Fold:
Amino acid sequence: MNRRTRVAASAFAACVLLALCQKNAGATERLVIISPHWEGVGVEVTRAFSQWHRQTFGTDVSVDWIDQGGTSDDVRYVVSLFAKNPDGIGIDLFFGGGMDPFLKLKGMGYLVPYRVSREILKGIPPSCGGIPNYDSQYCWYGVVLSSFGILYNKKVLSFLHLPVPQTWEDLGKECYFSWVGAGDPRNSGTMHMMFEIILQAQGWQEGWKTILSLAGNTKAFSASASQVARDTAIGEVAVSLAIDSYALDQIQTNGSENMGFVLPQGMTVINPDAIGILKGAPNLKTAQRFVEFVLSPAMQNLWMVPKGAPGGPKEFSLNRLAIRPDAYLTPGITFRDLNPYTFPSSFSFQANLSAARWAVFNDMVGACVIDCHRELKKAYAALRGKKDRRLRERFFELPFDATLQKHYWDNWSDAGFRNRTIAQWQNFSRRKFSSVIRQAKFSL
Structure:
């Protein structure tokens, strides 16, 4: 190669190198997240992560958020995609929806382990109230903590001369007829968790009695937990089942003089709202960075600091309880008194049981409560003022018992078995409620 050729080759190589550097400098990485989190979380987390990623790694990130309508819908969507594409589904992360979805997805082999840095991990206690904050094999991590209670509209209760309910059983009292708000657990992971808490806190028989009673008082079942909270705030209902984030958002928006939130003492749990990397994640490195970021002190503070405050969100207050205890020492955080690490211990929640019966329990509530809600509500109204013990016992009869649960969940993937069983439950429930309505006409 002569001197002129070498010079030309060197110049060409330099141009290629310069072009590559310019391309990399302006490159935009991509991240795909499926999440039931509301819009404000997507906006604020994307903004904060993109800024951090640009400062730390010198590249921008485009974050795509997917939601099929709620946690239960998102889980079904992911499972259906993996059934067709077992090596990967083009989605990097599942983010939010509690802990149960992650136990289910891990059990199906759809989550991949990733151990965050030692610096991040040492800031997160292994558990809160006896429930793990992250997976022992690092397939998922709790990002924030959730508590579950009763949201109430003070003005509506005052107008109706009704007391503030303090327990789950209170929601079934006759005085709250048609003034209770709740959602469909088949769509909403929050509502699923709340019904599961009632069932575990009170036991199978008493838990189902409470579920059927509060359903008798429920005005209508919404598809989303956020809509239930909004309905309470505008006075469509007086009280409702609510996760703390939606309750605190309504209190902050409408004022504590108008809205309140109560945790049934000894009858609720603190549950991690988790994140996990999905099998075959197309943007694995960026997904790992995202997990590190949402567990970092800066992002943990963002969950609790009100919008507009230094270090806080720009457009939406997120009103979530951080997983890191040190976040509760941050000046200016919202709802400082709600520190889950200082809450008294409640009952022992069985997370594995909850995850195992997730789909079956959703369909139990769907078939025996929501699909026949019109008949259920009429039957419950017919019982008002009645003292007939046998008639009340008839109202609370179930087409299944606790001993059959494992049989159901072992066979629930069989569509024929599932559909036949649901139809049997629906028919049993409709006949039962119709019978109660008829007999109540002749009962004292």
User: Anything to note?
Assistant: The longest helix spans residues 415-440. The chain is about 45% helix and 15% strand.
